[in-house]
Amino acid sequence: MTLTFVPHREDSLPLHLVDKPGLAALVDRLDPAQRAWVEASGFEAGLGKVLMVPGHDGGHALALVGHGDEAKRARQRFGFAKARAALPAGTFHLVSNLEGAELEEAALGWLLAGYRFARYKDAPGPKAGLIAPAGVDAARLEAIAAGEALTRDLINTPASDMGPDELEDAARALAARFGAHLAVTAGDDLLAANFPMIHAVGRASPRAPRLIDLAWGDTGPRLTLVGKGVCFDSGGLNLKPGTSMGLMKKDMGGAATVLGLARMIMALDLKLQLRVLIPAVENAISGNAFRPGDVLTSRKTLTVEINNTDAEGRLVLADALAYADEERPDLLISMATLTGAARVAVGADLAPFYSTEPKLSDALRTVAGRVADPVWEMPFWTPYEEMIEPGIADLDNAPSGGMAGSITAALFLRRFVTQTPAYGHFDIYGWQPADAPARPKGGVGQGARALLAALPEVLGL
């Protein structure tokens, strides 16, 4: 993968990013032969469209990339990134009127367009290289792209090669790279350490459940990220149909996303104390699997009636959140591929989030568009609390009725965060259903860039 900018070269070709008015002005400045070439090509500066313009020596003199119109750009993020695959091998430098957030989006999109998942077969990437445009923080964008690539790689890897062991290995490699501390509690040790629901969900698999605990930094505000690490979700005894099981390798997308965000934070050396907690399990079936009708006692001592073993993510998150809450961090975030209801509500492109902290909500709304990482706030709607309260236990893991499924799941999680005022929860999809600019079909990070951009405002960095 080529997720970095290339070094400066004096012989790099100009890459002109032009909309229709800009195209007309540029064509007027070309020599007659080049002007005739552009006019004969029918190039109209459509978003991401490419035209190579020859020089007098028979080689290329410059490249044109269409920037489309405002309406097209509003409907498609990273439109400039489409050009990368269409450009020939070579080194280019960007010529444009972009600045600020628009320039950053173009530059980051270029980097992300270099991503390929090549673990199981060759997947050649684009051959064109771009010199970092003036006006962008190249190191920051490269760190963000590397974090996103980590998230995508983890999600794209099938469960045969990405179980709790391998997820731990990924966290361990990340910790080693950035000098973080890693502790892991696994198997029956989870019971001794009072993580009963993580143990209950994962005990049916021969791949031992575990809680992965990464810590980095010793000064500044405290940020804790909790990511759902269900490495494969069969549904348990409430077995999923085959059509619903096909994408369940991505059910650790929350864990993948917090690890990607953690990589960004550590690579950028943000002045904070970071903790990452990942309950890593496989929701499998065997004689000792937890059952519908069981009542589990959580780390927080709240009892939970199991009305569907396929609503397991909130169970493992609950123990991890309760543990995180005991430390009372300045900001606590959970990320999970938690409910299909969230996807029904907002589709695959938006990352819905819930927040108890107005400063977090305001910051996310402000920065999400700027960093091309769309989010949408959903309500912690307190009147729905009674929907998660069954008759024989404190909580119900799968309320009947099919209403407000994402909200009731978020309310369930909020019950386990009682000492930390600033809590945010993301109910992400973690999957790109079809190829899009800078986002090939497959695993994708959601919400991480928006959170990264929001941290200075929320934590006072």
UniProtKB/TrEMBL annotation:
Gene3D superfamilies associated with the record: Leucine Aminopeptidase, subunit E, domain 1 (3.40.220.10), Zn peptidases (3.40.630.10)
Superkingdom: Bacteria
Domain (Cytosol aminopeptidase) ranges: 308-315
UniProt keyword annotation of Manganese present: yes
Keywords per UniProt: Aminopeptidase, Hydrolase, Manganese, Protease
Gene Ontology molecular functions: aminopeptidase activity
Membrane-crossing residue ranges in chain numbering: none
Similarity remark: Belongs to the peptidase M17 family.
Protein name: Leucyl aminopeptidase
Lineage, opening ranks: Bacteria, Pseudomonadati, Pseudomonadota, Alphaproteobacteria, Rhodobacterales
